[in-house]
């Protein structure tokens, strides 16, 4: 296998979103009332050139997100997001630069359907797009918009393959889904940031990679067991971080969240989690 990292622009969020402050509903309130901004954070997508076909994990953001009217003005959350994406930073052109045609991508795996992960879906009309069934249900329709998703911007042809995890434990994770059938690309449950959020474990010959999506915003926050400020189920989010920490303690792992500025450096150096 060969792996690549693609950065599809940057995003700034309130610091209280990256690391939740307070307990119960106060944690959510503190995110929405935080008037500060983080530094611009990367929006990463991941590419695997696998013997059974090219796999893309998340599709990054679209440049359309910078246009007036892309985010619904009525939704309070979108007043708390700033993004910077150019057309050439989208996942499609960057795949082309790697010598990979988007139409040749066999699988696209979605950790969840927030726009900074799903904004590049339009580049993959020929791919099999894997989405957790519950995640798709929660993100669809007007109710999905209320929850902070943007289904109105999904491509008209978008009809993902809806999956459920098999009751086959993988390390501390109670379920799993094998993508390739060769036990080297495995979807595991990491609910918290959103319900039915998943991460992808890639077991290469010389390293194990944990493509975390937004299970945590940084490696440090995972190690410190600090949940974010937007996940509605705090207990589930904490359980996810406990499982991830247990996994990386027992398996030397390169841990790669989508918005961690150090993810690309750890990926390049194959730097495993150190305690």
Class based on secondary structure composition and strand pairing: alpha/beta
Question: CATH top level?
Answer: Alpha Beta
Strand content: 15-25%
Largest sheet: 7 strands, mixed
Return residue spans where pLDDT drops below 50 for at least 5 consecutive residues.
Answer: none
Q: Terminal Cα separation, in Å? A: 28 Å
Which sequence of SSEs, written as H and E, runs from N to C? EHHEEEHEHEHHEEEEEHHEH
The structural domain count equals 1
In the CATH hierarchy, what is the superfamily? Ribonuclease Z/Hydroxyacylglutathione hydrolase-like
The gyration radius over C-alpha positions equals: 17 Å
Assign an overall shape.
globular
Question: What keywords describe this structure?
Answer:
275 residues, seven-stranded mixed β-sheet, single chain, alpha/beta, five-stranded mixed β-sheet, 12 strands, Metallo-beta-lactamase, Chain A
Outline the fold blueprint:
Blueprint: E1 2-12, H1 15-18, H2 25-32, E2 41-50, E3 53-57, E4 82-84, H3 91-97, E5 105-109, H4 115-118, E6 128-132, H5 133-139, H6 141-146, E7 161-163, E8 177-178, E9 185-189, E10 198-203, E11 208-213, H7 219-223, H8 234-250, E12 253-257, H9 263-269
Parallel strand pairs: 3-5, 5-6, 6-7, 11-12
Antiparallel strand pairs: 1-2, 1-4, 2-3, 8-9, 9-10, 10-11
């Amino acid at each position: 296998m060969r792996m690549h990292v693609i950065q599809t622009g940057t995003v700034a969020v309130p610091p209280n979103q990256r690391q939740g402050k307070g307990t119960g509903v106060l944690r959510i309130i503190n995110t929405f009332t935080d008037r500060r901004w983080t530094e611009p954070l990367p929006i990463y997508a991941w590419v695997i050139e696998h013997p059974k076909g090219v796999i893309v994990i998340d599709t990054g953001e679209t440049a359309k997100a910078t246009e007036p009217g892309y985010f619904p003005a009525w939704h309070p959350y979108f007043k708390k997001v700033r993004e910077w994406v150019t057309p050439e930073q989208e996942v499609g052109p960057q795949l082309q630069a790697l010598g990979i045609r988007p139409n040749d991508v066999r699988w696209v795996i979605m950790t969840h359907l927030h726009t900074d992960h799903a904004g590049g879906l339009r580049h993959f009309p020929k791919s099999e797009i894997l989405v957790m069934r519950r995640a798709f249900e929660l993100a669809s329709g007007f109710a999905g918009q209320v929850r902070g998703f943007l289904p109105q911007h999904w491509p008209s042809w978008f009809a993902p393959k809806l999956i459920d995890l098999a009751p086959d434990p993988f390390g501390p994770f109670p379920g799993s889904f094998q993508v390739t059938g060769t036990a080297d690309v495995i979807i595991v449950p990491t609910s918290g940031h959103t319900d039915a959020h998943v991460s992808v474990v890639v077991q290469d010959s010389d390293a194990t990679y944990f493509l975390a999506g937004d299970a945590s915003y940084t490696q440090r926050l995972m190690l410190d067991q600090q949940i974010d400020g937007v996940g509605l189920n705090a207990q589930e989010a904490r359980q996810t971080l406990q499982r991830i920490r247990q996994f990386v303690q027992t398996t030397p792992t390169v841990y790669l969240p989508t918005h961690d500025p150090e993810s690309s450096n750890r990926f390049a150096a194959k730097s495993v989690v150190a305690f």
